[in-house]
Amino acid sequence: MTRVTFLHPDLGIGGAERLVVDAALSLKKQGYEVNFVTTHHDPVHCFSETKDGTIPVTVVGDWLPRHILGRFFALFAYIRMIYAASYIIFSGNRPDVVFCDLVSVCIPILRLRIPYIIFYCHYPDQLLSQREGFSKQLYRIPLNYLEEITTGMAHKILVNSLYTRSVFKDTFKRLTIEPEILHPSINTDYFDKARIVSLERVLDKKLPVDSIILLSINRYERKKNLGLAIEVLAELQKYLTEEQYKKVYLIMAGGYDKRVEENVEHYLELIGLADELNVTDKVIFLRSPSDLDKVSILYHCTVLLYTPQNEHFGIVPLEAMYMNKPVIAHNSGGPKESVVSGVTGFLVDLSSNAFALKIADLIKNPEYVQQFGDAGKVRFMEIFSFAAFSAKLNKTIEDLINKKKVK
Q1: CA distance 129 to 30
Q2: For the chain, what are the domain ranges?
Q3: From edge to edge, which strands make up the β-sheet containing 156-159?
Q4: Under 8 Å CB-to-CB from 117, ≥6 apart: which residues?
Q5: What's residue 131's pLDDT?
Q6: In this structure, how many other beta carbons lie within 10 angstroms of the beta carbon of residue 290?
Q7: Distances (CA, A) of 19 to 8, 26, 99, 122, 350
Q8: For 256, what's the count of Cα atoms within 13 Å in the CB-facing half-sphere?
Q9: Is there a contact between 336 and 347 (Cβ–Cβ < 8 Å)?
Q10: Which residues make Cβ contacts (< 8 Å) with residue 51, sequence separation at least 6?
Q11: Is residue 42 helix, strand or coil?
Q12: Taking the CB of the first residue and of the last residue of the chain, which one, N or C, has fewer CB atoms within 10 A?
């Protein structure tokens, strides 16, 4: 039996974490022995499969600092992952394959004793780092160089979209490797088996039966552009009758980690924005909803708003499409590959007016909601199904092993 270890820095509840958990589930179903090694895993801030025994999780190096006085996060992430990689190569039950993502600096350590290493590039880390002056740029120079060189040392490189592949090639100019695309999917078995609960139970608030629910799901981070969803809600009042607008509510749901200063700050900023725009009574905030709660609010929502700009791919639109919901997203990045504008939803400019106009169209023509939702489900099953994801990942591993055996 082929043993596969997933090495991931912080096993929380973001899109990157959902992808690696789903990858582990798909391989387990196909007979692989899988486990996770991570530097942090909080049982109250993680996906259920990583805490209920479905996939074994080993935490190593969590005692190492994450930063010094709020600085050097990237450096310490590298140190923690090197430590975790060292644990893997010296463990008594060494894997045949290590699937790592986010931090590539661990790859040279893994190559000492691991036969096959796959690196999944969600997006180049150096592009996620905010430029904060000359000293920060100097600090990043060696880290950026290490990221490029160590990424190229993987036996196989995967990316999540055509968009990310183009960014990868533009960023890592020293590398001649052509990454393969492995579009993320979702664990549809869980969605199918989930026991849908009422909105009242999820929100601890009773809404009118005929409510029109706009839904935003994303981590409480500024780069996710969550304030746009609240601005859209306020803008929407211009295009609806008073009776129609009275029925509209916005649920803001997303990952929230109290250890992360930005999560705490941005959550408070969004509450302030809702108050400023006089829509506080129409916005409901959910922090780190459970898997069941997320499936339930997707089931009950009318339309999904996806506000990030140049998102690398985006798992949430797939989840909405699988639940037969139309998606309105910014016309950039990964959603350009998942959403077909005018068929499964709309791709629009990055403005509250552009989003509001399309939402108003759907509210005034409710038959479109069902039509777009059904088309989204069909597109998901044809291109982004869990079966297609599993088959591609399994083939990648088999091809990698067979290729090395031939050599």
Answers
A1: 37
A2: 3-185+386-406, 197-383
A3: 57-59, 33-38, 3-8, 97-101, 116-121, 156-159, 180-181
A4: 97, 98, 100, 107, 110, 111, 153, 154, 155, 156
A5: 60
A6: 13
A7: 11, 10, 12, 10, 26
A8: 16
A9: yes
A10: 43, 57
A11: coil
A12: C
Q: What is the pLDDT of residue 405?
A: 58
Q: Is the dihedral of CA 129, 134, 135, 137 positive or negative?
A: positive
Along the chain (407 residues), what's the average pLDDT of each consecutive run of 10 residues?
Answer: 94 88 94 96 90 94 89 89 96 92 96 96 83 73 93 96 94 93 90 91 88 96 96 97 96 91 95 97 94 94 96 93 97 95 96 97 95 97 93 93 67
The tokens for 85 are 């990689």
| Other Cβ atoms closer than 10 A to 224 | 21
Residue 305 · residue 328 · CB < 8 Å: yes
Residue 220: both structure tokens together:
């409480």
* Multiple choice CATH, 3-185+386-406, 3.40.50.10400, 3.20.20.300, 3.40.50.2000, 3.40.640.10: 3.40.50.2000
Is 197-383 in CATH node 3.90.660.20? no
From CA 192, how far away is CA 269, in angstroms rounded? 36
Phi, psi of 98 (to 5 degrees): -115, 125
Q: Is the dihedral of CA 270, 275, 281, 282 positive or negative?
A: negative
